[in-house]
Amino acid sequence: MVKADTKFFQILPDQEIDQIHQASLYILENFGVRVDDPQLRNELYTRGCEIERDRVKFKGDLIRQVIDNVTREITFTGRSGKKSEVKPGHVIAHSTGGIPAMLDGETGRKRNARLSDFIQAMRLVDHLDQLDMPCALLYPEDVPAQISQIRQLEHMLKYSTKPIYGPGVSSAGEAKYIVELFRVFAGTGASLTENPIGLVGISPESPLYFPQEITDTMKFIIAAGIPTVILSAPVAGISGPLTIAGGIAQMNAEILAFAAIAYFINPQTPLIYGSRLNYPNMKNGTSIWGLPEVGIGNVAVAQLARRYGFLTDVYGLSCTSCTFDNQTGYEKAINAILPLIAGAHMFSGFGSMANLIVASYEQLVIDNETFAMLRKVKRGMEVNPDTLALDVISSVLHGGTFLEQEHTVRHLRAGEIFMPKLGFDHAWSEWEATGKKDIRIKAREAVKEILVNDRFEPLPGEIEKEIDKIVQHAFQELVTR
């Protein structure tokens, strides 16, 4: 276990975090998880698990062994050499994944996402300085479902110079080809764990269920050593307890069970704690991602995962609002800043609207600015002889101005005062003089400017041919057979 660090915001005292931990252990030891694959159940039995029909129960000692093995630091390297370090003290932002619809910036209408939208989104996010790892933002309707995850990864590898947050993988058939695509960049026989180009996500089902398709997927991905985010997503009151504490206890049990199974497959594969607990409108069952409970729960998750030493990935920039209004701003800000100051490591939600059902290029640009402000919050302030500036005050009092001081210029250039790239930071008269533009209009202009000036650097020809060959084989096996 890792000792708690009191410099982080905490919503629960340590003893209540321990209660959640103990509740998760109780769930695993007494209720267990359903595992469909009989061969895997037998393998888990030989590792010390108890089997009761199709349920696998994990002993506390085994779970503690798994916790002691968690990865505490990962460095991802994009094809251009750009790096994203996931480790304590660092914050990584990535876009949402798997959104089925686009908000068309020209018409203002919602429509189904297409592959051309996916490619354009990848071009756009490659230029957003606050987005560290692009995710498979959209689920294109014009791609066969049998190879959708493969085609998403294909275009991420082709269009991103940054490390990638690959698609959520839920098909063993696709998982085999996803491993092959990752190997193109690692080289034949090279480790996919050391200096990886990216990661993928895999989701157990709630409550406490590992279908064979998911465990077969794990056998491909985990065995290959591809870093994996464990995406557990119980819906409060529907596929998990309604209470925040109960939902976290169940989700934590699902994540620990996944980690245990992964440990037996390949103990070297890095795992990230992916909290996706969400809360519905109980009148219709719709998951409402803008609620404050999302942020509150993820503070507790950050505390719990830090106790284990897990790296965490949470929904920060999520909202329920369907347009560019105040609701979008306050929902995203509240649900991001809470886990940020609690010490979470990775933040999803870039570009999402309407409970993760709609994506928007403009929202990607707005979220980029929001996250720049969040990083400034995390940076905080320094108190030392230089920042206290007593000599500067003395100098001004003896004649002079603060504006002409070297100290002022140096700290301004160092970013002491946040300077927005998109938001308005002038006076009312200047706002009127520049056309009274709202944030949506300015974001739309920024999107157009980025895409017009984009100088896409294609992959080397041999690598692109290898990717195309893998995708073609996948199409032949999974679609046309």
UniProtKB/TrEMBL annotation:
Gene Ontology biological process terms from the UniProt entry: methanogenesis; methylation
InterPro entries listed in its UniProt record: MttB-like_sf, MTTB_MeTrfase
Keywords: Methyltransferase, Transferase
Bilayer-spanning residue ranges: none
GO molecular function, one term: methyltransferase activity
Pfam families: MTTB
Keyword Metal-binding set for record: no
Family membership: Belongs to the trimethylamine methyltransferase family.
Name by which UniProt lists this protein: Methyltransferase
Organism per entry: Formimonas warabiya
